[in-house]
Design goal:
Blueprint (H helix, E strand, L loop, with lengths): L1 E10 L10 E6 L6 E6 L7 E6 L5 E7 L4 E6 L5 E5 L7 E5 L5 E8 L4 E7 L7 E7 L6 E6 L7 E7 L4 E6 L7 E7 L10 E3 L3 E7 L4 E6 L4 E6 L6 E4 L5 E7 L4 E6 L14 E6 L6 E2 L9 E7 L5 H8 L20 H7 L13 E3 L2 E7 L5 E9 L2 E3 L10 E8 L4 E8 L8 E9 L2
Parallel strand pairs: 1-32
Antiparallel strand pairs: 2-3, 2-25, 3-4, 5-6, 6-7, 7-8, 9-10, 10-11, 11-12, 13-14, 14-15, 15-16, 17-18, 18-19, 19-20, 21-22, 22-23, 23-24, 26-27, 27-31, 28-29, 28-32, 30-31
Length: about 425
């Protein structure tokens, strides 16, 4: 049997599906209630998840994909980490944090079901920590222990699960330079690693695939990047007020940050008091959130699930980007945007194009997990007629032999010819991806 060529086809219809793809951020106006807020990745549909009173000081926030819950840290009177559903219901107390130290950032390890948070010590005695616990607060333990002080205490941090490191920036103060360090998840500090930032370090995120660190520097108002292996700091984008929390959407090639706007009176710059984003090369800056007069967003977390085309489009396109519809071809590579969504490629990079691979007489293709899309493998022995399992013929044309996860959103599907093709000498395959 010879597989001669492959055809890609995407069809379109309208459908409604559950909400996905959100940016969650904590907002702590001075002297007032705190807010947990969500907004779509392109800045539309901003919603307040919950309002927190009783002397709050909202800081770190993380999204737990498996449960669909948001975890956020209140360093004010409560001294606790809470979890809540995106619609603001079912708030639960999760983890008690230090009553005497500065509790700032939090992150979640989905694989182990652990939550991590930092406890900074600005004093001269005792220690500072990054701790972890089960999501319900049990089995709390220190992971990283450092000396006290503004130049040594962990403040914001990042879990590099792929390479097995925890990166953190120190508490810092004033406008003098400060640093980022790293340790293993067993708490072994890497004494050879150091990133020095011009002023006060804030949040850091790492792209393990490219070996690049991205971080916020408070006083300069810059977002920097640098290879983990060393080299000079590069300004990715400048002109912010006081950027703090940071997050990466590597699939879409976007970086997000929270700018507290707490430097200067009134605050100035590109993104004061807002959540914003740009591309990983610094282009296409966008303010996303609509702030209160006294907003001070501290940290943010991304829900990158894209069960609908609209969710995915909000991650890759701004509201003003042309050719963003499912039938458009934004990068001119011959694949419609809907097909790029279906097969996990980038709709605005011509070098990232959907493909089907041959493996003997089998074909393999990428399929999006948990989306509204409907996939169908079709075959032909005499073009232009195509058949598929479930058509009126009642025959088994193809057999799906495996579906191997590529990541949380995509899987690699392998398909072989079925019994109906046992005597065929030539077979043509195509994959149809359509909205219901």
């Amino acid at each position: 049997m010879r597989v001669s060529f492959l055809i890609f086809l995407a069809a379109l219809a309208l459908a409604f599906y559950a909400k996905g793809a959100r940016v969650y951020f904590t907002d702590q106006p001075a002297g007032g209630p705190g807010y947990l807020v969500s907004v779509a990745p392109n800045g539309t549909d901003q919603q307040t998840v919950t309002i927190v009173s009783n002397a709050p000081d909202l800081r770190g926030v993380a999204f737990h994909r498996a449960s669909g819950r948001i975890y956020y840290l209140d360093n004010g009177a409560a001294k606790r980490i809470y979890s809540i559903l995106p619609d603001g219901s079912d708030q639960q107390e999760s983890v008690p944090v230090s009553a005497t130290l500065i509790n700032s950032d939090l992150e979640i390890d989905e694989g182990s079901g652990k939550i991590y948070w930092s406890e900074s010590n600005a004093g001269t005695t005792g220690n500072a920590f990054i701790r972890r616990a089960n999501l319900n607060g049990t089995d709390a333990e220190p992971v990283i222990t450092t000396a006290p002080g503004v130049m040594t205490s962990p403040y914001f941090f990042f879990l590099d699960l792929a390479e097995g490191y925890i990166y953190w920036g120190v508490l810092s103060s004033g406008s003098v330079s400060s640093s980022f360090r790293r340790a293993t998840f067993a708490g072994e500090i890497d004494e050879t690693f150091l990133i020095t930032s011009p002023t006060r370090t804030r949040d850091i995120a790492v792209d393990a695939a490219s070996g690049t660190a991205y971080w916020c520097d408070r006083q300069t108002g810059n977002v920097y990047k640098r290879p983990l292996s060393g080299g000079a700091n590069q300004i990715l984008i400048g002109g912010m007020n006081a950027p703090h929390g940071i997050a990466l959407d590597l699939e879409a090639g976007k970086i997000y940050w929270a700018d507290t706007g707490a430097r200067g009176n009134p605050p100035s710059g590109l993104s004061p008091r807002r959540v914003a984003r740009c591309n990983l090369d610094g282009s296409e800056f966008e303010n996303l959130s609509t702030p209160l007069v006294d907003s001070e967003p501290w940290d943010l977390a991304l829900d990158l699930r894209s069960p609908t085309y609209d969710d995915w489009r909000a991650r890759f396109f701004s509201v003003n980007t042309p050719d963003a519809g499912p039938e458009d071809d934004a990068d001119g590579d011959g694949a419609k945007n809907l097909l790029e969504y279906a097969m996990g490629t980038h709709p605005r990079r011509a070098s990232s194009r959907p493909a089907i691979a041959l493996a003997g007489t089998s074909v393999k293709y990428i399929r999006r997990i948990g989306s509204e899309l409907q996939y169908r493998v079709e075959v032909s022995t005499s073009l232009p007629a195509f058949q598929y399992n479930g058509d009126d013929g009642g025959l088994v044309w193809t057999i799906e032999t495996s579906a191997t996860p590529v990541n949380e959103d995509l899987e690699l599907v392998s398909v072989t010819p079925g019994p109906a093709l046992a005597t065929a000498s030539n077979v043509f395959f195509r994959v149809r991806a359509s909205l219901p």
